[in-house]
Amino acid sequence: MDYSFTTIGALIGMAVAIILIIKKVQPAYSLIFGALIGGVIGSGNLILTVDTMVSGAQSMISSVLRIMTSGILAGTLIKTGAAEKIAEVIVQKLGEKRALIAVAAATMVICAVGVFVDISVITVAPIALAIGKKAGYNKASLLLAMIGGGKAGNIISPNPNTIAVSEAFQVDLTSLMIKNIIPAVCALIVTVIIATILSKKAGTMVSDQDLEKHAGNKKLPTFIQAFAGPLTVIILLALRPIFSIVIDPLIALPLGGLVCAIACGSLVQFREFAEFGLSKVAGVSILLIGTGTIAGIIKASALQYDVISLLEMMKMPAFILAPIAGILMAGATASTTAGATIASQTFAQTLLNAGIPAISAGAMIHAGATVIDSLPHGSFFHATGGSVGMNIKERMKLIPFEACIGLTSTIVAVIVYLI
Known about the structure:
Elements: H1 7-22, H2 27-43, H3 46-58, H4 61-79, H5 82-94, H6 99-112, H7 117-135, H8 139-154, H9 160-169, H10 173-179, H11 181-199, H12 208-213, H13 223-243, H14 249-263, H15 270-299, H16 303-313, H17 321-333, H18 336-353, H19 358-368, H20 379-387, H21 392-396, H22 399-418
């Protein structure tokens, strides 16, 4: 077995990173410092540790470039009001009687077309609160509907986590997105069921003050204008699996943003939209570089061999490593993107050597990364709670339900692989 660092060193490094993240130290710095500590403890060689960290960070550059350009699409969808319009139309079409289905479906679609999951929830929140006030739904049911819909959309989207997994396994982004369609639909169904149960329980209701916070008379584009950008991206990415014409996400995503700006009559503001989008992905891009450093240490350690040995001792099949890795790494970092990246970077080769198809392994890791990715030491927990004015105690109560939704997509992803 060829490895440079011990399992103990890798685990200590990961533990240090987790503790620092929980202590509110900037996640990228936490991961970098954890990688340094883990490498030194795991080998005692500072030069080797730094070289491995740099190599790990370098492996993230192609993902970072694609994520940076994806910000153009996301920024344009948000700033033109296209994302809000898509959500509004979905909610209107499904109606007040199906409010929770509408809210979940709207968030799923917004996330699936390229808006990051936390921003998808924030975008749909004003519409969800307004319809929730009329229909008499409590905040918990509305927020869970949005979060569950976001989780479902996130595993079939050209978002940072999907890009990172596709890069690690060197598989086509579109194929990876398509692979998790069935798990996503199942997650959406479970979301609606749980949200409906929560709506029948006592909870904090939407107040007039909540609606006032989101009040505004922003002019939105038509649905056709709003969907022009996402449709462009879908068509361009679909060319590879259908006609073997390769259009890289690096080109397809920003081109979709440009089409969206033109369709919405906002081409003059396109530069502003791009800058806004970049500001939204800058944090994720930096996080991925930090993630790369600790992924490099873990990948070069004995951890993957020891995990395989443990699975063999427990007589568990090798493919179980994929979802478990996604679940644990996302929980440790409280981030779908960081968790999916570390898990796929670390265990991709191991899973492939075990004979598991790259697309299936990537899909299982990706789905697993949505189970406990919303723990309180991450930004998603606070951003989503804040979108509906929910306090931390109330927000904490939703974590088990969110885990059930993520676990649903993970189990279905495993079943799809086995079939």
